[in-house]
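Cross-check.
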Amino acid sequence: MRSHRLAALLSALLVFHVAAEETVAPLGTYTAVERRHWAFQKRATPDVPTFTDPADNDWVKNPVDAFVLARLKKAGLSPAPEADRRTLIRRATFTLIGLPPTPEEVDAFLNDTSANAWEKVVDRLLASPHYGERWGQHWLDVVRFAESDGFEYDTHRNGAWRFRDYAIQSFNEDKPYDKFLMEQLAGDEIAPKAEPMRVAAGLQRMGPLRKNAGNQEVASSRNEVLTEMTNVVGAAFMGVTLGCARCHDHKFDPIRQSDYYRIQAYFSATHEKDIPLAAPEEQAAWEAKAKAAQEEIKALRAQLRGKVGEERLELEKKLEAANDKLPTPLPALYSVENDFAKTSPIHLLNRGEYNQPKEKVGARPLGVLLPDGAPERTTLPENPRTKLAEWLVDPENPLTSRVIANRIWHWQFGRGLVATPNDFGKMGLRPSHPELLDYLANQVIAGGWRMKPMHKLLLTSSTWRQSFESPISAKAAAEDPENKLLWHWSRRRLEAEELRDSLLAVAGKLNPKAGGPSVIIPVDPELVNFLYKPSQWAITPDPTEHDRRSVYLMAKRNLRLPMMETFDAPDLQISCARRESSTHAPQALELTNGDLASRMATAFAARIQAEAKGDRNQMVERAWLLTTGRPPSAKERTLAAQYLNEGQPLREFALAVLNLNAFLYVD
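Predicted model, tokenized:
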């Protein structure tokens, strides 16, 4: 590892400034065929399909249903009947807040005979503060949020948790998506004195960061930082694999290598910035404590220049020891700001190698969405990232509204209309319902880019309320086994965070505290010992904090929580567009022998015993209502009663209930 860093340093010193005579990259043109790809076309304004059959009109509750039914009828298929009320409220509660409904909430819905009973459920869930926790996690997946750098050192990021809280709050207040996007790309430019805006701009620093001992300003490190800033724009906001054009023209999509670096040019003046929150006297006291260590660090870094081999290794060890002497960092905003005096010249790079610069480029949006020969900026504007964000949220941009409309659909139905949410290119999947996608994208803009009205539109549709367990049509199963045409509801397993939070909730142990610094929970010492510094995993001393929602747990790149990893939580290295849902033996082991499952089984047993006042029949009833949202079936009731009447441990019964498919899956 250190030899690689040494080679990178020497290469940077020797060849970074080889391009004495700079030329400007040609603007390039795009063929009619390249421009015809559906994602780069202007959005259509499709007419909502109409029907003459009264039964069809009864099923169609809003335009979503009209588009879906028209596609089903074209394929000769029919939609499934509506799911029962217990199923619907459980499905909606998990979809919107990531938790199971309480038995009392289920009963209230069952007993509500008003015409708008379902709308009231949807409105209540959208108003819940838990909504932002669930949907904020979706966004954190997309922007690969983490609170450590990754790579060898995996240094913790002071104050990065504030970005998580910013995302949660933004969803809760239904912040318009165009504003949400602009704040994350350019919050520091738009309102540099506003703390939330500076926090939002921390998006630019969410990617993994390789730190080289003794020299963190080498050209290779800067190139990696700019690469991370650029790639997330393509993945998260544009829904294209922009990063594939870093080393050469995109092999499949009309994205030139020059396009990649022209987008990167918008970030050429962007540099990390930690903004202290401590009072001046606190900062002065910190500086006084840190002075000796800082002087030692400065001297060691000077000694590192030109050193190689064992001599360098020894100096690096001393440098690490000196860094350990620094006092605990003061509270700060983890953000960025422009430093035009340190603007990086942006060149096309031969095969993406930072030390092989070719033609110089300026800032410009994606060429395929511009007229041929559209000019690029030869100098950066005053607020370059604001200009990029304004282009992205321009209603004429065909990508941005489609991408977010598709993400909302994906997170509500489990599969997007475009099943590859980060890739609208040729290697991604085509939309299953292109007219519906454009209709929804147009609705996003017409509705002021707000997400909650889109949620309500989808959840009040007949499409979303279809049953999973209805009789399966042999024709539909044969012609559309993946349910792309939406002829029934697709069952899904709970995601890692939903599962952990649900275990805590039904056991009565969930701590609802929101926001603040992330929680570090106990894990196997063997995992901690693999860290570069085991001291990084300092367990939060208050044990009640360990039972908070999963979104508030420390997101550390080099230590993924075993349970979360077992149930397919993303690795935090790259943008996660969609969660996988695997099935394998370690999941069963985790739910029967894992520390959390064991602890929650004990708590769950105590809860149902207390609430049922020791009555075995009532304990069985309460266990099913809490975990599945329904009473046990006759067979389930008989088997459970038989087990308990034999004198078997209540805790083992509780553990078995927590392993029911009816608890682990959403129908």
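The two ends are 49 Å apart (CA to CA). Residues 16 and 457 are 54 Å apart (CA to CA). Passed to J.P. for a second look.
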